[in-house]
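INTERNAL AUDIT FORM
Audit reference: QA-55
Scope: verify that the stored structure record matches its stored sequence.
Auditor: D.O.
Record contents follow.
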Amino acid sequence: MTLMNRRVTLKERPTGLAGPEHFAMDEQPVRAPAEGEVLIETLLLSVDPAMRVWISENPGYVEPVLPGEVMRAGGIGRVLESRSPTVRPGDLVQARLGWQTHTTLPGSVLQRLDPALGSALDWIGPLGGTALTAYFGILDVGAAKAGETVLVSAASGGVGQMAGQIAKLAGCRVVGTAGGPEKCAFVTRELGFDEAIDYKAEPDIKAAIRRTCPDGIDVYFDNVGGPTLDAALGAIRLRGRIAVCGRISQTATAEVYGIRNMGVLIGKRARIEGFLVFDYADRYDEARRWLSGHLKAGRLKQRLHVLDGLERAPEGLTMLFRGGNTGKLVVRVAKED
């Protein structure tokens, strides 16, 4: 029997929120691996804000996903057949697998999972790309130091959860923004943030930041952009740092918010810097060892929001931008065992 690959492809580019109506499903025969290649069964897929950028006409830093192509996504898979010397059948690997049940890739692009560091769910969550982004954003770009105040937006999301906890481990006072009392309680009670701002309930985000960060902000880890970034700029301290990770509030909106407080950077001698986790690829092993050690010791945790079934991946992308998830969004395509 021919092994079939179920795929989710981009049907048309969205102009606002992306949802199931912008994608299509089909099946194609699996391609057998050539020399140096590997056939992989997808187990878990990550759903991330960057996906909305990838399906725009000009993402800026990568080629866009074209209509008719499989939706781009990182994930964890199991090797079914290998013609590469680097991996064997049964190995778990991490790669850009896409929204599909099977894919054939060169062995050279695969990251073989080290089970000593964590499980497959750990590797897509607290050892995955979102955790690496938080690690380098807080410790390198933000250069957070003990005694400083750190503000993290989208604190209950995949990156925000880890960013706040990493800042706490660095000895910082940490405040997070999240949407709704349940998410705010999760951020403070379960993750250990010092305070949380419910941006949905606050009539004035600037006043909320002044109230929770009365001495100002040393580091702002920005996941959302827009008015929250503007308010954080207004509260930045002398030689403060802003690490721009994402702008989820601006990605699917027709009218982009104009930042007004950029002039603050001059008098405060502050720094604002955007970054991509890929910039630190040669240090992934260092970060994962650090993260794994704290994870096993119980000093780090991450809640995953898992959707079962490949067909739910487009639904997950909509959920992400509507704030319907608490924790990192993951699609389980097949059982890990």
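Auditor finding: record pair retrieved intact. The domain at 129-278 is CATH 3.40.50.720 (Rossmann fold).
Action required: none
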